[in-house]
Amino acid sequence: MDVYEAVKSRRAVRRFIDRDVPKEVLERVLLAASWAPSGSNIQPWNSYVVTGAPLAELKKRAGKRVAAHGPWDEREYEMYPPAMKSPYRERRSAFGHERYSALGIADGDWEASQRAASANWDCFGAPAALFCYIDRELGLPQWADVGMYLQTVMLLLRGEGLHSCTQMAWSVYRKTVAEILSPREGLVLFCGMSIGYEDVTEPYIRTGRAPLNETVTFVGSTSQLLAQAAQDASLLDI
Fold first, then answer.
1. Would the pTM of this model clear 0.85, i.e. be above it?
2. Is 98 left (phi over 0), alpha (psi -120 to 50) or beta?
3. Distance separating alpha carbons of residues 16 and 127, to the nearest angstrom
4. pLDDT truncated to tens, each residue of the chain (238 aa)?
């Protein structure tokens, strides 16, 4: 699989089959991902990979919290701004509509949406999960470094025929995660990542992308090429 195919085929998969991911595959992916870029090569990511009995126990404990309808853990960072402006607000809304429409959930059906969302804490049935932490004393540029690392992991997983789903949702059950992982002091849980082989029977709608001229500005002689490229409908699915 070449890099373009890996990028275009990567998506958030939300149902996995019951098939173990070989440890040597995970090790190969994470060893290669260690070459992801970071400012001054500080490599701010701290990853914990969980499989087998520890992952089963984590899912069990998280499931109990979901069933109890108790409060979430206090947030250590905000996932989204409280008042999201255009066009980001519309893009997020469109994603939610497409995601739940594929599952046959009507707009406004809060209970059904919550049931679907609760699958986050079962890792969507995935047999492996990665939890990525960052030192709380680091700054926004280092959070960006962690994002580049996670993207590298996801693309390498595609190269191995695997899929993934990054989940900031785990941050609201961070104390439950810590019970299993015992992360060192001073770390903030950024996200989890479910890893496994896709269950191809799960319905989904592949979310599109904004036209290139909405998100990219070319300065110089390439501007005319951009205008022509923006008319190519195939760009919407990159």
1. yes
2. alpha
3. 8
4. 899 999 999 999 999 999 999 999 999 999 999 999 999 999 999 999 999 999 999 999 999 999 999 999 999 999 999 889 999 999 888 887 777 677 776 777 667 667 767 888 999 999 999 999 999 999 999 999 999 999 999 999 999 999 999 999 999 999 999 999 999 999 999 999 999 999 999 888 888 899 999 999 998 865 556 556 665 545 545 4
**How far is the C-alpha of 153 from the C-alpha of 156, rounded, in Å?**
5
**Cβ(145)–Cβ(44) below 8 Å:** yes
